[in-house]
């Protein structure tokens, strides 16, 4: 091969030699570098053209009869399923209208219009607000004292011979209308938070862990809040307490003459600490970031516990009761803070801040978790249903033929219910007029 002259290009063999690499070195470089898809300008044009052809093919397919036929088939299937879900319940209701009902029927006299949750089942009884429910006679008619009511039309309602006219109420009875002028058909059963009611009922109640029976007496707090708690319970409680970083919250309420004392107390507290107000504790956070919940209760009715008190305990907050009545034997002692134990709102605020800074003291308010369980009443008419079921058994005599002492035993046994169903305390039956007039809510306008 001739030699290259000076100033000319290198020989071909030297060029090949300088560009040659070992196979192993090339493999290492390919392994170190991520694989990338590199398209030449021609490849990019081909890929764009392929995508354009695919879109055009899809558009042409949408215009074909086969496409519309498949779409109609899918729509017909969806419509058929929806019709089945709508027609089957109506068919069952129509069939049920011609069959005798073997369940006791409870009429809710003033629970809203008939089309609003008109019928449902509770513990084997039919509960309805429809005053003409398939012509079936009603075994019990319930008046909700928490809402306005009138007995007008009661005489035209079809009912059994031994039916019950129930006076029920969960709000303080001092805030309800006086039922005495409406006693054309006297109430023969009471169902409320009062402990002397025939059926004691509230939205929440306390029980032991291994029993659903309502408690009206509690032990004193233990020295250590975790004494008697299981390990999972302690871990769960600590997880809830870790979420807290704010002092206190309270629920918005109507400021009027009745709540004026609580409003003045709130203004005094705001001079020493910032407080937050919510409409409810529903939602993602659930008020879990607060140490305390302020409970403003303008009434002092015996046996009444504000629903927010239970909600605070359910959300792992310590209730701070401002107002209200005597809660002895209604809630566990040492589970809440009472404003009456402090000389001023300033001292109460200082106490709350001190508890927030000392977790070991704050945790003591949760001692009751080791012994008791807070339960909610999802079906408020279960106790009434058990009473009706017990009365309709063949061996049970007509209540008008049974002495008062035996009536009390029958009501107590019925309220005890079946196994696994919460039991409800039953008091000795008192005529309604006496029951209403013997109860007094103290005037507490200057309670602070």
Automatic annotation (TrEMBL):
Subcellular compartments: Golgi apparatus, Golgi stack membrane
Entry's EC annotation: 2.4.1.-
Pathway listed: Protein modification; protein glycosylation
All residue ranges annotated as the Fucosyltransferase C-terminal domain in the record: 244-395
GO molecular function: fucosyltransferase activity
Record region (Disordered): 26-47
A UniProt-annotated Pfam family: Glyco_transf_10
Record's bilayer topology term: Single-pass type II membrane protein
Record keywords: Glycoprotein, Glycosyltransferase, Golgi apparatus, Membrane, Signal-anchor, Transferase, Transmembrane, Transmembrane helix
Main location: Golgi
Keyword Ion transport found: no
TM region positions: 71-91
SUPFAM superfamilies the UniProt entry points to: UDP-Glycosyltransferase/glycogen phosphorylase
Tree of life domain: Eukaryota
Positions of the Fucosyltransferase N-terminal domain: 102-201
Gene Ontology CC: one annotated term: Golgi cisterna membrane
Stated family: Belongs to the glycosyltransferase 10 family.
Record-given protein name: Fucosyltransferase
Organism: Drosophila madeirensis (Fruit fly)
């Amino acid at each position: 091969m001739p030699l290259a002259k000076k100033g000319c290009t290198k020989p071909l063999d030297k060029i090949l030699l300088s560009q040659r690499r070992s196979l192993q070195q090339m493999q290492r470089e390919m392994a170190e570098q991520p694989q990338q898809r590199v398209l030449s300008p021609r490849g990019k044009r081909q890929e764009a053209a392929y995508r354009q052809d695919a879109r055009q093919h899809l558009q042409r397919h949408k215009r074909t009869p086969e496409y519309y036929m498949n779409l109609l088939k899918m729509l017909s299937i969806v419509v058929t399923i929806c019709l089945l879900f709508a027609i089957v319940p109506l068919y069952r209701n129509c069939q049920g209208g011609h069959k005798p009902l073997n369940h006791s029927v409870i009429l809710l006299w003033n629970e809203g219009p008939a089309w609003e949750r008109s019928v449902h089942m509770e513990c084997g009884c039919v509960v309805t607000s429809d005053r003409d429910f398939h012509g079936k006679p009603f075994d019990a008619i319930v008046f909700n004292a928490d809402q306005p009511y009138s007995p007008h039309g009661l005489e035209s309602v079809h009912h059994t011979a031994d039916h019950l006219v129930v006076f029920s109420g969960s709000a303080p009875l001092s805030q309800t209308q006086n039922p005495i002028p409406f006693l054309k058909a006297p109430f023969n059963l009471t169902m409320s938070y009062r402990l002397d009611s025939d059926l004691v009922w509230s939205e929440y109640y306390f029980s032991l862990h291994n029993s659903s029976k309502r408690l009206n007496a509690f032990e004193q707090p233990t020295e250590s809040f975790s004494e008697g708690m299981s390990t999972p319970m302690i871990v769960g409680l600590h997880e809830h307490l870790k979420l807290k970083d704010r002092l206190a919250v309270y629920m918005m309420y109507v400021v009027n003459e009745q709540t004026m004392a609580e409003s003045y107390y709130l203004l005094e507290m705001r001079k020493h600490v910032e407080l937050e107000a919510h409409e409810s504790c529903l939602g993602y956070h659930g008020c879990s970031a607060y140490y305390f919940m302020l409970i403003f209760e303008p009434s002092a009715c015996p046996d009444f516990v504000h629903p927010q008190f239970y909600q605070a305990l359910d959300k792992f907050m310590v209730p701070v009761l401002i107002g209200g009545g005597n809660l002895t034997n209604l809630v566990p002692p040492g589970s809440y803070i009472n404003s009456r134990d402090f000389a001023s709102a300033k001292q109460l605020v200082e106490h709350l801040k001190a508890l927030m800074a000392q977790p070991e003291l704050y945790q003591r308010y949760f001692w009751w978790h080791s012994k008791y369980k807070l339960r909610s009443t999802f079906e408020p008419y279960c106790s009434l249903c058990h009473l009706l079921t017990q009365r309709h058994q063949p061996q049970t005599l007509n209540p008008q033929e049974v002495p008062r002492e035996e009536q009390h035993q029958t009501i107590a046994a019925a309220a005890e219910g079946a196994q696994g169903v919460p039991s409800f305390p039953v008091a000795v039956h008192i005529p309604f007029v006496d029951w209403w007039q013997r109860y007094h809510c103290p005037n507490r306008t200057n309670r602070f």
